[in-house]
Amino acid sequence: MKWSNSFLFTKKESPADAEIPSHQLMVRAGLLKKVGPGVFTYGYFCLRSIRKLEQIVRRELDAIGCQEILMPMVQPRSLWEETGRWEEMGDLLLKFQNRNEQWYCLGGTHEEVVTDFVRNDLQSYKNLPQIVYQIQTKYRDEIRPRFGLMRGREFIMKDAYSFDLSEEAAQVSYQKLYQAYERIFHALGLDFRIVEADTGNIGGSQSHEFQLLADAGEDQLMICKQCDYASNIEITPVVAKTLPEYDGKKEGGFKEEFATKGLRSIKDLANHLSEKEENLVKTLFYADEEGQAYCILTRGSDTANEVKIKKVLGLANPPRMLEPEEVKQLTSAMPGSCGPVGLNIPTYIDQHLKNFKNFVVGANRDDFHLMNVNLSDFANEGFHDLIVAQEADACPNCGGSLYTKRGIEVGHCFYLGTKYSKSMNATFLDQNGKAQLLEMGCYGLGVSRTVQAAIEASHDKDGIIWPMSIAPFQVHICNLDPDSKDVDPIAQKFYEDLQTAGVDVFMDDRKERPGVKFKDADLLGFPVRVTMGAKSIANGEIEIVQRRTKESEKVKIDAAVAKVLGLIKG
Ligand code: ATP
Ligand code: MG
User: Pick from 490, 545, 480, 485: which is nearest to 513 by CA?
Assistant: First the structure.
């Protein structure tokens, strides 16, 4: 491809809504154009990278016996009704009616369609295992699309689904996919971590996220300094600290109200009482989808973890925190003056409150708290791990120290068990002729997100630094004198020789100043830059620069093709 006849327009500025470097660079390098919120046109250069990633994915999945299929994007409501997800997915599913007023949605994920695809054909244990996958455009009506392709509404995903005859066999499929993912992300040459992740509410299931490490990542990870333990902070178990008994006994030691006018935050209360925040008790209120309210107690210094609360309560989705008005209705007081005493709702206590005595909680009367409260003063559902882990917490695996890192979730392996086969009645006959539910797994990989994540993880102040494996072009020739009879024929020949050798080569043959060309070459970020100008050609040489290291080398023209091929092989 030559610049002079390509649709490529680089920009000096990026739009205001491009908040992170990869998004800014993608727009500036002409890879991407926004059509609407979370919806983009992928330009030619972007699509080349996407296609390369897709090929790596296909290569690795085909190698373990997965079969590529393509399911529809438009899906009938009836299938989603079978699993109850038509309602459960809420507004994330874009729903619409056709001319006959029949309801459909755009596929945000394909468990329903794929289960329907296999359910009447996979009749015998002899047909198992099976793994199918597709690479397809998904639509999710994300509340807050942002960061370009990172959280789009329309995006490209590879989703695979495994079907097995037992939990044991399903684990084998899971491991196969897990290892294929490792090979795929290794091929990208990026720093990734595999972390344990939330499994939803499917007993005994497991889930691993593949995370690229980058400061702009939306996920927070907890990684052990000593062992290879890593998890998404959503689920990182907090190893109960052995805390000394806390006794906050005040005045006569009786449980009684005292005025705390205007003291609504833990911080203000701690200041007022000259008490540490970790010795105060925080009262929070949540509700599940049925409207049942719950009370959660943690130390004042801890943060409640809604994914853990979801698990403890046995819910399908994280509970919703009550609005101040709802809290008022429930407790007679606004948040900040509420506590567990005298309420008639299930109350769950974080494990670090075990040794608390005579503590302070809200009095359920605005601007009053209660002192000398004990755990025996209210009914409760016992102690649980309900809080978010913190830097330097103990590793649940080895006791070492955890540190935090931000990550971009690029892939997700998920053992589903029989969740979908059960609700959709997908059975097979086992060796004894008995009907059994299919054991399933699903495995997502965000193709468009990964391309941008690769840029987020690999760029500098001048532009993109593409990994060789998914670079739109491997070599960028800066032809500095396209009008010169001495330079141009050599540049053209070099370009053709590389193409013949199977190299993806791009040539900047515009009539622009060298400075402009170098700036654009850095911005576009193809791994190997070759500069050809009158001066060096007169010396029988050309210059080769590696984008990542900016290492530059003069090479004899005759040796240049071999040199470039060597750099591409790595
Ligand atoms: P997230 O927590 O980031 O919303 P998810 O858990 O909803 O992700 P999955 O349903 O497991 O994601 O989807 C599989 C993969 O698809 C994810 O690992 C991610 O790489 C990608 N993906 C999910 N949502 C988006 C999105 N809105 N834009 C781009 N890629 C996405
Ligand atoms: Mg999501």
Answer: 480
- CA distances 471 to 28, 29, 452, 520, Å, are 16, 13, 12, 15
* Angle formed at CA 207 by CA 420 and CA 288, multiple of 5 degrees: 65
Measured between alpha carbons, how far is residue 402 from residues 163, 209, 278, 387 in Å? 36, 18, 20, 15
- The answer to whether the CB of 360 is under 6 A from ligand 1 is no
152 lines ligand 1 (CB under 6 A): yes
pLDDT digit string, tens, across residues 321-356? 999 999 999 999 999 999 999 999 999 999 999 999
Query: Tokens for 481?
Result: 């004198």
CA-CA-CA-CA torsion sign (338, 340, 346, 348) = positive
Q: CA–CA separation, 302 vs 173, rounded Å? A: 39
Structure confidence at residue 200 as a pLDDT band (50, 70, 90): low
If you take atom 13 of ligand 1, which residue's CA is the nearest one? 444
Q: To test the ligand 1 pocket, which listed residue (109, 412, 451) has its Cβ within 8 A of the most ligand atoms?
A: 412
What is the rounded average pLDDT of the residues 22-36?
97
Predicted confidence at residue 119, as pLDDT, reads: 95
- Residues linked to residue 285 through DSSP beta bridges, in sequence order: 295
Q: Are 300 and 280 in contact (CB under 8 A)?
A: yes
Residue 569's CB: how many other CB atoms inside 10 A? 7
Nearest CA to ligand 1 atom 18: 411
> How many residues in total does the chain contain?
570
Kindly give the distance from the C-alpha atom of residue 16 to the centroid of ligand 2, in angstroms, as a whole number.
24
| SS3 at position 476 | strand
Rounded CA separation 514/465 (Å): 20
* Max CA distance (Å), the chain: 100
Ligand 1 atom closest to Cα of 142? 27
pLDDT, tens digit, for every residue of 78-97? Answer: 999 999 999 988 899 999 99
CB 41 within 8 A of CB 448: no
**Averaged over 462-487, what is the pLDDT?**
97
- Tell me the backbone φ, ψ of residue 244, rounded to 5 degrees: -65, 160
Q: Regarding beta strands 356-357 and 154-164, do their DSSP bridges make them parallel or antiparallel, or are they unpaired?
A: unpaired
pLDDT in tens, 261-316: 999 999 999 999 999 999 999 999 999 989 999 999 999 999 999 999 999 998 87
